[in-house]
Specification:
CATH topology of the largest domain: MetI-like fold
Number of domains: 2
Order of helices and strands: HHHHHHHHHHHHH
CATH architecture of the largest domain: Orthogonal Bundle
CATH superfamily of the largest domain: MetI-like
Distance between the termini: 6 Å
Largest sheet: none
């Protein structure tokens, strides 16, 4: 296991280096100049040249790449071209908001999807199974921006139960923090709840026909023990894979939700930085996103060994 982890960590470093290199040069191949965006169309050529020199953008690409890679190795992602703020500070402010939405959205998804998937598998082709299937397809069909607007109109405007926009840090109290996150988390988690529910149903149906389930029932074990200890545990292997992917996508794919609920999270920061040609912020954000995906893949592989002891990495 230790050898496997070392190998995976080495691969992770190579993947991150490849992502960093690809993003660096692709950004500079995109039409548009961040200096022109900052100074506007009325800027003089002298002012543009001076600002490009101050920001180091007049150097050859390979020189900029070497300097940026050297600073990256020291943990320095640089400063924003637009406002001069350190990239680590900007990402440190935006990432916790997106992370909070993703964690709460995943918790809501699992709380709904796992029980619904189990019941749907046990009651195959019955009324509960048909209801769960219809609800799952509805969850997959509703766009995030539409669902978010509907939730705002119902729970914020009409009923006044929850705030419509903004984010409150956890330091200001758990309940205010939770109230501001419930609507965006529910909006983000709906589609993933449907996916996880269908995957749980499919995996449970496959496991319930396995010989060891018949053996467990023949031994006289209670049905609850058979379902939760034997069937569900073995059915979780593909489900955990989907959960890992879902959590990564929740972290990096919350742009629409953050726009609808006016939350300055990681996705919104990345989009604004792309529009403003803020290269250091875009590079830092994409590296963080790549690190999330790599880390989640490694975590899922490790969880496999705890769920199914027969899995060993040599």
């Amino acid at each position: 296991m230790r050898r496997y982890l070392c190998k995976r960590l080495l691969y992770a470093v190579l993947v991150m280096w490849g992502v960093a290199t690809l993003v660096f040069f692709m950004l500079r191949a995109i039409p548009g100049d961040p200096v022109s965006v900052m100074l506007g169309p009325e800027a003089t050529p002298e002012a543009v040249a001076q600002l490009r020199h101050n920001l180091g953008l007049d150097r050859p690409f390979y020189v900029q790449y070497v300097f940026w890679l050297w600073n990256l190795g020291r943990g320095d992602l640089g400063r924003s071209i637009v406002n001069g703020e350190r990239v680590l500070v900007l990402l440190g402010q935006a990432a916790p908001r997106t992370f909070a939405i993703a964690v709460l959205a995943l918790a809501i998804s699992l709380a709904v999807a796992l029980p619904a998937g189990i019941v749907s598998a046990l009651k195959k082709h019955t009324f509960p199974d048909h209801v769960a299937t219809v609800v799952a397809f509805l969850g997959l069909s509703m766009p995030n921006f539409w669902l978010g607007i509907v939730l705002i109109l119902v729970f914020a405007v009409k009923l006044g139960w929850l705030p419509a926009l903004g984010y409150v840090p956890l330091s200001e109290g758990f309940w205010p923090w939770l109230r501001h996150l419930l609507l965006p988390a529910f909006t983000s988690g709906t589609a993933f709840a449907a996916i996880i529910m269908r995957m749980t149903r499919s995996a449970m149906l496959e496991v319930l026909h396995a010989p060891y389930i018949s053996t467990a029932r023949a031994k006289g074990l209670r049905e609850r023990v058979v379902i939760l200890k034997h069937a569900l545990k073995n059915a979780l292997i593909p489900v955990i894979t989907v959960i890992g992917i879902a959590f990564s996508l929740l972290l990096v794919g919350a742009v629409v939700v953050e726009e609808v609920f006016a939350i300055q999270g990681l996705g919104r920061t990345l989009v604004r930085s792309i529009i403003n040609r803020d290269f250091p912020v875009v590079q830092g954000a994409i590296l963080l996103i790549a690190g999330i995906f790599v880390g989640m893949n490694l975590l899922v592989d490790i969880l496999y060994t705890y769920i199914n002891p027969r899995i060993r990495y040599e």
